[in-house]
Each structure stands twice: as structure tokens, then as C-alpha cells.
């Protein structure tokens, strides 16, 4: 009776669309084929008919890399042995439907809903490579309420295809990065649940990322190489993949947030039908939490009737970047030195005021006393630099090199130097001018422990380069200067209090080629 009813429904649809064939994921002739499956099942006393679709309807595959934007891969690579862990859950509504071309409102839901969890992990190697791994797990799935169509899909739980993503960065600069990746999937998933292609797939990709604008932009394109599969009227094979993503950091109520948006899809190379062109638009908000945790939530609509494109999708995820102490051995903190004399060609004449001489530092070069500088918003500890009278600066020994620690104030989440810090930088400029024997200095940017490590390193790099440009504009030879951002990888105190975090937000001027500290100072 079920077969007769479906055949009658097919004939009614054919009369309404006599001059156009009903196509989406099935033609009318495929409905007859499906009816024959049902009739056979009834004749065999409800014996199950094995169906192996062998393609994957899950179009949401959040990247395992630390800088990936949802399902669009990044060209950035973290530092050596940086680890990133993530878990995402997604809900897709009607990701697989039968649609009449003559009237797209006439649809039959083949797959009503799909809920999955994606487990991800990645590790960076040598600052140029990153390897990611994702494992999709089916939590729940509901088939069509139609008895015939619902029999074609296995409900319940199961695994999807394991995805391995090796990436190599080809080129990078302050504002641009280029990388290649080769996502590889293994046929570990359930084909009867539309979670597997049934064979190994490989997708060579080219990735480009830019930080030139306030918006971080990532784009990727590639070729998905996979064995051809057919299910009813759908042909799945080699395809052109594409993705475009953007990220805008902002703050709200004192919280560090970021707005994300992605557009991703693919086009089958051997087919031109709409069902072979899935496309999806997603938007999300990322919340940067203490302890290197990140919470992301969002959703978006499907833009086409392509397979695996839902009416809408919702998702949420948590990612974690282990602390530097876990990822790698912590660098030795700088040894703080207070009022210890440095080698000096000539001593500075004694101050006229005896009370002032008790607190004056010992200088290594004759230099006129600088006027007192206004204290910054978050003042440094009361340790003065021995190179010149420089209130607000610190002196330290970093890995055997003399280092000057300055708490330069920047605009929030930006590299713009605030005016309050200009007097401090003027003192550093005066030191470099008066001591030509300092032939090379590395300007190091450091942040506190809040936020994602990758973001902090990128921000600290921009800030260090901003200071470098300021020194160059003041006449310091560029050949004497280098810039490097370390993010929160080298704290001088634990990031457990607001005061300590303020101390860790600093700029260091490390003398790479010039006067060396005494043995007593190290």
C-alpha cells in the first residue's frame, strides 16, 4: 500500500509539473526506485534493505588550528610546540531535503536534524608547520517522518570521518601570511548515517591571511579529491572548495570579544546542478576568557539547496591553549637589579643636593639629567636605570644581556602609543643617542596572560614595531633596532593579580651588541 501511495503521489506531481522534471536530490524516477525498496521490504516481512549513501552531509568542520576562523583555515602558524584544544557542538536543521525544481516550496525532509560534536587538537612545529586533528561524533540524528524515506537513514549515534590537517607556512610578514594545507579524511564514519565518503579524501588548499586592516581576513581555496559517489540523483566527486572569513576584535563591559563571519562552500567539477553546490553563511561571537580559554557561539543560514546545507545551523564551542609553562620550558626570568653600578668610562658628577644623591642611580655614560617624566597610568616598580637618570624605567639582565624595561601605554587592543608614554620613550632615545657603543637593540613586546596566546603575540609584535618606528622617527638608525613580540610567554611575575598583570605589560629594550652587565649583576 505504501508503494501504491507513493506512485500515486508521483503521478500527481508529474501532472502539476508536466513540462519540468522534479529535481533536487531525487528525480521522479528515483522515487519509484525508492518505492520498490519499500515494497521489497514489505514483501520480505520488513527485512531491512542496506543503504550506503557514502557521502558526508556535515558541512560544518571547525578548524583545529589555533588561528582558524570557524571552518575556514588560517595561514598563521604559532610558535614551536604550541598546542590548541577545542570542542564544538553543532545543530543543523533539515540538512538534506528533496526539493521540486518547479516549486522549491515543495520539499520533503530526508534528514530532519543532525547534532554533532567535533573534537579538535593541533600542535605547531618549528614555527612553520602545524598539524591538526578533528573527530566528529554524531550525538543525535532524526530522519524524515515519512516511513519510506526515513528508512533510508540510520538514526542514533556514531563517528564521522577523522580529519587530519597538515599545514606549512610558505611566507609571512607583519601584515600577510601564505600557507598550504592538505586536509585528509579517513573513512572511519558511518555511511548509512551520511557521515562518511567511504574512502580516503584529500583536499590540497592554498591559504592567505592578512592583518593589514582592523579586520583579520582569511581566505582559502582548494580541490577536494575523492571517489565519485551517487545517491539517487546526487553525484558527489571532485570539487572546488572555497572559504572566506573575517575577525574583528572589540571590547564590551570590560570583556575581550571578537566578531566572526565565514562564507564557505564547494562546487562539484563534474556536475552543474544546484544540489552539488552547497554554501553556508555563519556568524559568531568569540569571548576571550581568563586562563587561555575561549568561548564561541553563533549560527547562520544555508544559502543554497545543496546537499548538507541546512535551513539554519547553531553551534557553540570552547577552546583552550595550554599555558607556556605546559607547552614549553619557561624562559629564565630576568634578574632584577637595583642600584648596581655598570662599567663606566667616566663617573657622573655628584649631585649638588645630598638628599637627592642617596637615591640617584650610578650612570655608565655622561648624560645630562632628564626632566622628571609624568608617571604612566600603571607605573613600573621603583627601580631606576643605571644608564641615565630615568624615572619610570627598570634595568634587568635578560639571558646575559642588559635590558631596559619600559611600561609603554598603548590604545586598547591596538599598537598606537599613548601620549603619556612619550616622555619615557624620549629617555630611551636619549640613552641610545648618548651611547653609540650600543650597536644593536631588540625591542620586545610583552603582554599579560589574558587572551589567546596567538592573539597576544600578534598584538605584542605590532606594538614592538610601533615603538621601533617611533625610535626611527626620532633619528635612531634602523640598523641598530630589531622588533619581536612574545605575547605572554615571558612574564616577570605571575599573572594572578591586576597589579602583576600591569607589570607584565611592558616593552623591553635588550642590548644584543653593546655594554655587558657585570658578573655580579647576573
State the main characteristics.
23 strands, Porin, alpha+beta, 8 helices, 522 residues
Can you lay out the helices and strands and say which pair or pack?
Elements: H1 2-16, H2 28-43, E1 83-99, E2 107-125, E3 129-143, H3 147-150, E4 158-159, E5 162-172, E6 176-181, E7 184-186, E8 201-202, E9 205-210, E10 216-224, E11 229-231, E12 234-236, E13 239-252, E14 255-268, E15 279-289, E16 293-301, E17 312-320, H4 324-327, E18 335-336, H5 354-359, E19 393-398, E20 401-406, H6 422-434, E21 440-446, H7 453-473, E22 481-487, H8 498-504, E23 506-513
Parallel strand pairs: 21-22
Antiparallel strand pairs: 1-2, 1-17, 2-3, 3-4, 3-5, 5-6, 5-7, 6-9, 7-8, 9-10, 10-13, 11-12, 13-14, 14-15, 15-16, 16-17, 18-19, 19-20, 20-23, 21-23
Helix pairs in contact: 1-2
Distance between the termini: 91 Å
Quote the beta fraction. Answer: 35-45%
What is the tally of helical segments? 8
Helical/strand content category: alpha+beta
Count of discrete structural domains: 2
Structure description:
- Helices cover 16% and strands 36% of the residues.
- With 522 residues, the protein is of the alpha+beta class.
- It has two domains: 52-322, Beta Barrel (Porin), CATH 2.40.160; 335-521, OmpA-like domain (60s Ribosomal Protein L30, Chain: A).
- It has a twelve-stranded antiparallel barrel with strand order 1-2-3-5-6-9-10-13-14-15-16-17. Strands 18-19-20-23-21-22 form a six-stranded mixed beta sheet.
- β2 (107-125) and β3 (129-143) form a beta hairpin.
- α1 (2-16) runs antiparallel to α2 (28-43).
- The longest helix has 21 residues, at 453-473.
- The chain starts with a helix and ends in a 9-residue tail after the last strand.
Amino acid at each position: 500500500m505504501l508503494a501504491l501511495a507513493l506512485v500515486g503521489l508521483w503521478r500527481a506531481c508529474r501532472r502539476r509539473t508536466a513540462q519540468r522534471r522534479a529535481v533536487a536530490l531525487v528525480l521522479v524516477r528515483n522515487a519509484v526506485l525508492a518505492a520498490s525498496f519499500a515494497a521489497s521490504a514489505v514483501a520480505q516481512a520488513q527485512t531491512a534493505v542496506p543503504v550506503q549513501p557514502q557521502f558526508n552531509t556535515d558541512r560544518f568542520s571547525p578548524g583545529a588550528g589555533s588561528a582558524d576562523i570557524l571552518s575556514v583555515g588560517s595561514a598563521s602558524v604559532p610558535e614551536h610546540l604550541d598546542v590548541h584544544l577545542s570542542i564544538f557542538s553543532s545543530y543543523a536543521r533539515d540538512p538534506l531535503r528533496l526539493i521540486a525544481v518547479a516549486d522549491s516550496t515543495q520539499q520533503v525532509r530526508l534528514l530532519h536534524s543532525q547534532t554533532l560534536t567535533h573534537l579538535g587538537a593541533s600542535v605547531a612545529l618549528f614555527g612553520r608547520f602545524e598539524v591538526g586533528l578533528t573527530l566528529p561524533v554524531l550525538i543525535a540524528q532524526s530522519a524524515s517522518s515519512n516511513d519510506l524515506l526515513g528508512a533510508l537513514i540510520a538514526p542514533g549515534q556514531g563517528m564521522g570521518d577523522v580529519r587530519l590537517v597538515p599545514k606549512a607556512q610558505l611566507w609571512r610578514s607583519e601584515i600577510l601570511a601564505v600557507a598550504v594545507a592538505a586536509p585528509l579524511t579517513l573513512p572511519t564514519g558511518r555511511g548509512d548515517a551520511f557521515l562518511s565518503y567511504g574512502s580516503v579524501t584529500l583536499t590540497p588548499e592554498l591559504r592567505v591571511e592578512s592583518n593589514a586592516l582592523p579586520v583579520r581576513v582569511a581566505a582559502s581555496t582548494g580541490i577536494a579529491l575523492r571517489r565519485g559517489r551517487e545517491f539517487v540523483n546526487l553525484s558527489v566527486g571532485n570539487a572546488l572548495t572555497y572559504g572566506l572569513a573575517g575577525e574583528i576584535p572589540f571590547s564590551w563591559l570590560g570583556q575581550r570579544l571578537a566578531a566572526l563571519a565565514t562564507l564557505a562552500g564547494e562546487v562539484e567539477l563534474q556536475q552543474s546542478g544546484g544540489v552539488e553546490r552547497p554554501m553556508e553563511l555563519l556568524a559568531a561571537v568569540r569571548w576571550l576568557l581568563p586562563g587561555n580559554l575561549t568561548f564561541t557561539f553563533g549560527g547562520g543560514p544555508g544559502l543554497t539547496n545543496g546537499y548538507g546545507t541546512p535551513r539554519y545551523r547553531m553551534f557553540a564551542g570552547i577552546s583552550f591553549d595550554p599555558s607556556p609553562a605546559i607547552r614549553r620550558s619557561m624562559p629564565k626570568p630576568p634578574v632584577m637589579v637595583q642600584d648596581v653600578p655598570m662599567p663606566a668610562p667616566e663617573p657622573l658628577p655628584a649631585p649638588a643636593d645630598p638628599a637627592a644623591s642617596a637615591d640617584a642611580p650610578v650612570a655608565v655614560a655622561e648624560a645630562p639629567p632628564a626632566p622628571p617624566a609624568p608617571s604612566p597610568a600603571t607605573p613600573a616598580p621603583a627601580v631606576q636605570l643605571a644608564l641615565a637618570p630615568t624615572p619610570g624605567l627598570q634595568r634587568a639582565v635578560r639571558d646575559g644581556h642588559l635590558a631596559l624595561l619600559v611600561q609603554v601605554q598603548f590604545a586598547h587592543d591596538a599598537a598606537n602609543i599613548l601620549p603619556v608614554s612619550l616622555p619615557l620613550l624620549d629617555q630611551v632615545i636619549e640613552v641610545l643617542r648618548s651611547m653609540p657603543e650600543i650597536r644593536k637593540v631588540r625591542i620586545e613586546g610583552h603582554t599579560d596572560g589574558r587572551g589567546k596566546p596567538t592573539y597576544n603575540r600578534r598584538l605584542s609584535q605590532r606594538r614592538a614595531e610601533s615603538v621601533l618606528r617611533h625610535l626611527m622617527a626620532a633619528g635612531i638608525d634602523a640598523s641598530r633596532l630589531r622588533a619581536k613580540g612574545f605575547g605572554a610567554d615571558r612574564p616577570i611575575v605571575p599573572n594572578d593579580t591586576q597589579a602583576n598583570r600591569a607589570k607584565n605589560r611592558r616593552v623591553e629594550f635588550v642590548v644584543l651588541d653593546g655594554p655587558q652587565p657585570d658578573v655580579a649583576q647576573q
